[in-house]
Amino acid sequence: MENSISRILIETTVRQTLKGLKEDPKRSIRNLVDMALHFSEGRFQSRFFQTARTMLEHEESAYYALIEDAVNHIETEHLVKFGMNLGYNSCTWGAQRIRTNENRLGFHIPWTVLFQIDDPQYSTYLPQYDLAIREGEQLGIYSWILLAHWDPLELFPLIERHPDSAFFLFCRPEDITPAIVDEIASLKHLMPVVRWDDGADEACIMLRNAQLPYSVYYPYSQKDLPFILDGDLFCETQQLHPLFTVLAAKPDCPADIQPRVHRAAIQVRTGQSYQTVPWELSCDTQNLNEIISDDACCVFFDGRGQLFALDHPDCASLGDLFREGLMPLLQRAYPKSAPASSQ
């Protein structure tokens, strides 16, 4: 994977573009998107880069400033490694592998998997998580979201064992300590996503000073809707310089609120007025799955290893990761419908 000819060529181009970004950001970004669109073969890549080119026609786009700031404040090797794992391994090569394996194996495969780490004894299950990630990579899954509600330090050896994947670590502001920052600095394929709460500004300053990529997330429910729809949330989070502002529905969030928040996130992305990219965790993840595969398959595991559909978290568990393993569980829970036979 890491030394494939295609990856090497693309990585070389990315490195050259990063150098050019410091001299002429707008021109370099446009040239990179135009070249990527020209060579895009899959439907996901073509749609993504066509959208990016349309958006970047907006001369006053705040995303130009966002990209320029990222290039100037994030260590180059971290940018390249994480970007290649996410953009190439996951969204290009991995996406093709997912489609191939779905047709070959007869079940739906998600683009990413969410693990909620909320058990203080979660280290007991690290071998099961390790096996699940290895099985997922065999299927084409190279993006992983870890929702850590406890000290994430023991997760770093697990992340280190999978250098081809991109990991998003959702964590609390108090988890970002000098010791944690030192660990993250050596894991070029990891991006921390800090909860927007008391202490988030200090945590983000620490990550920024260490030249690390990071994002923030905002847990929301019905009472938070005006704050999101008015744009006040993004106006405030952009002050912390996060790449993404992730919107995550709380367990008590009414079902009709989530689509409204998702529409707001799309509107803000299209408007390009804030130097951060909004992402509604459930809906945008589901949409990306639908682009990569024919049918969305949004997979979420709670702290006990129980499988739930991310788009239907109120439904009953679909199985136990720790007992069954990822591949057998997906095969049983998400079988592909057999094509109707012609008469």
Write out the strand line-up for the largest beta sheet, numbering strands in chain order: 7-6-5-4-3-2-1-8-9-10
> What separation lies between the terminal Cα atoms?
44 Å
CATH class: Alpha Beta
Which oligomeric form is depicted?
Answer: single chain
- Main sheet, how many strands, which sense, barrel? 10 strands, mixed
- Low-pLDDT stretches: none
Counting H and I runs of at least 4 residues, what is the number of helices? 15
**How would you spell out the order of helices and strands?**
HHHHHEHEHEHEHEHHEHEHEEEHH
CATH architecture: Alpha-Beta Barrel
Task: Please count the beta strands (DSSP E, at least 2 residues each).
Answer: 10
Measured as a percent range, the helix fraction is: 40-55%
Quickly count the domains.
1
Structural class: alpha/beta
Coarse morphology: globular
Overall mean confidence score, pLDDT? 87
Strand content: 5-15%
Question: Over the alpha carbons, how many angstroms does the gyration radius reach?
Answer: 20 Å
Q: In the CATH scheme, what's the topology name?
A: TIM Barrel
Descriptive account of the structure:
Helices cover 51% and strands 14% of the residues. Strands 7-6-5-4-3-2-1-8-9-10 form a ten-stranded mixed beta sheet. It has a single domain (5-333), classed as TIM Barrel. α1 (5-21) runs antiparallel to α2 (25-39) and α2 runs antiparallel to α3. It has helices at 5-21, 25-39, 43-55, 62-73, 76-105, 126-139, 156-160, 178-185, 200-209, 225-229, 232-237, 257-271, 281-292, 321-324, 326-333; strands at residues 112-117, 143-148, 166-171, 190-195, 215-220, 244-249, 277-280, 299-301, 306-309, 319-320. α12 (257-271) links the parallel β6 and β7. It is α/β, with parallel strands linked by helices and 343 residues long.
